[in-house]
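Input record (Table S2, row 261):
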Amino acid sequence: MGKPYGRSVALITGATTGIGYELAKLYAKDKINLILVARDDEKLREVKEELSLYDIMVYTISLDLAEDNSCEKLLDFVNKNNLSVDILINNAGIGSFGYLSEIEMEKELKLIDVNIRALTEITKIFLPIMIDHGEGAIMNVASTAAFCAGPKMATYYASKAYVLNFTEALYEELRDTEIKVSCLCPGPVKTSFQEKSGIRKNEAAKKALMTAKEVAKVAYKDFNKGKLIIVPGFKNKVIILLNKFIPRSLSRKIILMMNKG
Ligand SMILES: NC(=O)c1ccc[n+]([C@@H]2O[C@H](COP(=O)([O-])OP(=O)(O)OC[C@H]3O[C@@H](n4cnc5c(N)ncnc54)[C@H](OP(=O)(O)O)[C@@H]3O)[C@@H](O)[C@H]2O)c1
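Output record (NAP complex):
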């Protein structure tokens, strides 16, 4: 089977809401079959029902990527359904907010498990298969947070720096292959992520955020073009550029000030 209806298969983690969901919709519209991962079974069922209307195969698996054997379960699921993953989008990510000394240990370790361990393990599982097939595409979702240190969100910023560096390294390793590698680095986006992470923003600040739909549209276009680092939004591009020219000591002070609110 491999490619149902002779069309490619995209695996998207964290595909029930926010950026992952909007990306899933764009793939569905382009008739790419989908494997969708998230924890909430009911929400997965709803998204499957909605996206199946595009005449594609939609496979869903409820997994908590913070759990140890979740990536093995994902591989088993793909194999049992006789699928091959042509496009991999490591989008699922969680945040935490506050001084490291005050955040629960369990929360920080879960963040590392989802944002770093699972992303690495899933890539490590599916990349060799893509290499065997001689083609494939991987997009890892980082953040503009990847470019600097983030006091009051120390673990989250550091986890996204890992994702960016990991993805850049892979891009170089795979330069002479037909495997495309991209790192999506959005600035703050209007999704449930902010609230779930404990980030408080006033109404005016919330209005200025990009929507997940806008982010996904840019990501989809630039990923298809094979762009390595994708930063949606002019303001975010300027912030990253400015960050290159100011000392790190100043950048982290500014971020602490912003995170103190
Ligand atoms: N929103 C922002 O401001 C922002 C900015 C920059 C970068 N990002 C990054 O963009 C990515 C997507 O963020 P988003 O804003 O779209 O988030 P979101 O709206 O909170 O959606 C997160 C998705 O991931 C799934 N998920 C969460 N924890 C999971 C787990 N342990 N195992 C499996 N699936 C899990 C969620 O479904 P379940 O809850 O059902 O599992 C949901 O489908 C993340 O990597 C985030 O770090 C977000």
